[in-house]
Design a protein that fits this description.
Elements lengths: L1 H11 L8 H38 L39 E2 L4 E7 L2 E12 L2 E2 L4 E9 L8 E9 L5 E7 L7 E10 L12 E4 L2
Antiparallel strand pairs: 1-3, 2-3, 3-4, 3-7, 5-6, 5-8, 8-9
Length: 205
Amino acid sequence: MERLVRWLHARLHRGDRAATLVEYALLVAFFGVLSIGSGKYLTTQANSQVNNQADCVSYRPPPKECQVRALNVTTSTTNPPTTATTAGPTTTAPPPAALNPPPSFTKKTVGGYPTVGVSLTLRSGSGPVPGATIRFSILVYAPGMPSPGYVPQTTTCTTDAAGTCNFDYPSTYNNTNKMTVTITDVTSTPTFGGSYPAPVTFTWP
């Protein structure tokens, strides 16, 4: 084929004379043969594909060669990221509340009646304890009272912002000769951690 092309090229480019009618006819015949061969080849391939597709459509399930190959999908498992658990700040309970300094009790006379003046301060290690409720039990002794000779009474006091509680408790009997004051309960935050003081007794002459 290559030799034929070179021969034709040499014949066309000769300087002594132009190409003859025979040479042009040979070129046309050569390209015609190539075109016919290519057309027959393409027609055969197209018919083959059409027949294959017709066979695939006409059978159910389609033949093995008509089935689409399954894709091999590779899945990779990724472990989820590990999260570090941070422990929260450690909280320690505040130091317990205590009566500091110890309560003081003062004997007074208010309006002619024996009176007990009470003063106390509630503190913890972090400072004063405000809003604490302190309950007292008070026994009043007076002549002529039924046996055993006293009248039990109760009262409460709430500490202020400085943790202090001050109040006067007068007896309702002007012939009172003795009063006993006892702290029976302390409700506070932080919780009261001390012991209640022993009863304090005041005696009037």
